[in-house]
Design goal:
Elements lengths: L7 H26 L2 H41 L5 H14 L3 E7 L13 E4 L4 E9 L2 E7 L1 H8 L9 E6 L5 E5 L3 H10 L10 E2 L8 E5 L6 E6 L1 H52 L17 H64 L7 H32 L8 E3 L1 H15 L4 E3 L8 E3 L1 H18 L6 E8 L2 E9 L5 H6 L21 H11 L3 E6 L4 E9 L9
Parallel strand pairs: 11-13
Antiparallel strand pairs: 1-4, 2-3, 3-4, 5-6, 5-9, 7-8, 8-9, 10-12, 13-14, 14-16, 15-16
């Protein structure tokens, strides 16, 4: 049967009838279902939940302390002598809010020490100890600050002012409490069962409507007691009575409220339509109509809202595509401008040198000696190599941007790559390069040619920006299956904000007007792209003592992981 929308008058009559019947039915339902039994059960459940919360807090604190203790073990394992370890633990206990004391124990020397007991509480001294194993014949024992534990145990139940919580040891001695009451505490201890169940929340109330529960923690021996006070029981029952009274009051007001509510819904939905039309007329294509939908909403309103939103979605999708195309055009225009600028500044210089020295060698009106010929040919060779490197840099950019780099993973000798790269850089400019990598350094898994291109770019940058007469230093080490290569030079300090931008395209430390060094501004962008394609990472660091470092991390070659 198809749903038929009613007229406004018909809907108002139905709303008025429902406004009287519904509150009356709800009130009857509440009166017949709220009983002392359900309230008592609710209070019992909440007491059990509080007991579990406190247990979880205790376990969480002890586990957290245990984890911290394992971190302390890691630290002391790096200290060579017993005296240094004791001094470290003494300082840690003085400066820690959690630990009060530490003790290193050897079971072979202390026969009373129980290696299987991880948590110990001394009721006489009120000390709580946690024990962790260092190695087979050495353990560390830490005393925990009980004030710290108390502040955290009851952190989740601070609002439970009408609950009394006691935490006692096996002998019934109070350790921690929440809303302590001496009389209530003594009654609770006396009424505890003789045989306590471990790790299960158990009720043991003797007063009706005031449930009590206990939870014995097997691993620590602590007993959690949660009591329900008379004030809490009374407030709960009164709250239920207020609900019943409120239901009758709501019944009287609901008729008028629903009538006004229906009028508001109708007004709001029509107003939404007008706002949407005005927003679109002013160029806001993100505006959507969200009508207040219920059984009283006319069908015409829902239809108009749906059609309007559908139209806006299509307009907004077309507008977004247009904006994306415009953004791409701007990026292409910016790339074209930078490329033209780079070509005009960087490619012209080597071409001019090649053309000049070639013309000089071809002259027949003068006699050129062999030394001059050799120098001219050397300059032509150097400029050709420089031109070739710049062209290689430009050609690799599309592959990096499109993630289409062809990487030939192979076993690469790092020392050979470094030596070949140093030779290429020395052909450009004479500078001392300290290569501290030894011949026994492990091979790495990379692309030999790509890695050589990376090192040449980094050394080229170091040559251009390093202080005169200062060396370039190359170091390498292995850590956790990774080869870490560091190339450092002395140069001006670069702030972090500028440092992050150096991996972008056409970024240079000197702008067009103050440019004093050659280059395309693509070196570090290409370095980052090639290194990441070889499953590595590259990082830049500039220290205030004028040391600039490029750190490269690449995987070490492993025979079992490599498939030829």
């Amino acid at each position: 049967m198809k749903f038929k929308r009613l007229k406004i008058v018909e809907q108002i009559i139905i709303i008025s009838l429902i406004g009287v019947l519904v509150p009356s039915i709800i009130s009857w339902f509440i009166i017949n279902n709220v009983s002392q039994h359900s309230l008592r059960r609710e209070l019992g459940y909440s007491a059990q939940i509080i007991a579990k919360i406190i247990e979880n807090n205790i376990q969480s604190i002890l586990n957290s302390d245990s984890q911290r203790l394992k971190e302390v073990i890691i630290s002391i394992n790096h200290l060579p002598s017993q005296s240094q370890q004791n001094l470290f633990l003494k300082d840690l206990a003085i400066n820690s809010d959690i630990y009060k004391d530490f003790e290193l124990i050897r079971p072979s020397e202390n026969k009373d020490f129980d290696v299987n007991k991880r948590i110990t509480y001394n009721t006489d001294t009120e000390q709580l100890w946690i024990t962790e194993k260092i190695h087979d014949d050495k353990y560390i024992k830490a005393e925990i600050n009980t004030k710290f534990i108390k502040n955290n145990i009851f952190s989740n139940i601070q609002d439970e002012k009408n609950r009394r919580v006691y935490i006692v040891d096996k002998s019934g001695k109070l350790i921690f409490s929440h809303n302590y009451n001496e009389e209530d505490f003594q009654k609770s201890i006396k009424q505890l069962p003789v045989n306590l169940v471990n790790n299960i929340v158990t009720r043991f109330e003797t007063i009706k409507n005031q449930p009590r529960v206990y939870l014995k923690m097997d691993d620590t021996g602590l007993i959690i007691i949660v009591n329900t006070t008379k004030e809490l029981t009374n407030s709960t029952i009164n709250k239920a009575r207020l609900k019943i009274l409120a239901a009758f009051l709501v019944a009287a007001a609901v008729t008028l409220f629903l009538t006004l509510l229906y009028s508001y819904y109708l007004y709001f939905n029509i107003r939404q339509l007008f706002k949407g039309i005005i927003a679109v007329s002013r160029g806001n294509y993100k505006k959507r109509i969200t009508p207040l939908t219920n059984v009283f909403t006319p069908r015409e309103i829902l239809f108009l809202a749906e059609e309007f939103n559908s139209m806006i979605n299509e307009i907004n999708a077309s507008y977004k595509k247009l904006k994306e195309k415009n953004k791409e055009l701007k990026q292409l225009d910016s790339f074209r401008s930078n490329l033209v600028d780079t070509v005009s500044h960087e490619l012209r210089t080597p071409l001019t040198s090649i053309r000049g020295y070639t013309s000089r060698l071809l002259r027949t009106d003068i006699e050129i000696d062999e030394e001059t010929k050799h120098k001219s040919l050397l300059i032509i060779k150097q400029q050709s190599e420089r031109l070739s490197r710049m062209i290689d840099d430009l050609l690799v950019i599309p592959d990096i941007e499109g993630s289409k780099l062809n990487i030939n993973f192979e076993r690469v000798s790092l020392i050979n790559v470094i030596e070949n790269s140093i030779y290429s850089v020395k052909n450009i400019e004479e500078r001392e390069i300290e290569n501290n990598i030894t011949g026994d350094f492990p091979d790495i898994l990379a692309d030999n040619d790509r890695l050589e291109q990376v090192i040449i770019n980094i050394l080229g940058n170091a040559n251009k920006y390093a202080y005169p007469s200062t060396p370039i230093v190359i170091n390498a080490k292995c850590e956790k299956g990774k080869a870490i290569i560091k190339i450092s030079n002395q140069a001006d300090y670069i702030d972090k904000q500028t440092l992050y931008k150096l991996f972008e395209k056409f970024i240079r430390l000197d702008d067009k007007t103050t440019r004093t060094t050659r280059g395309t501004g693509l070196g570090l962008y290409i370095v980052k792209g090639l290194i990441e394609a070889m499953n590595g990472s590259v990082h830049l660091k500039s220290s205030t003592d004028n040391i600039f470092t490029v750190k490269i991390v690449l995987p070490v070659f492993k025979e079992e992981d490599y498939e030829a």
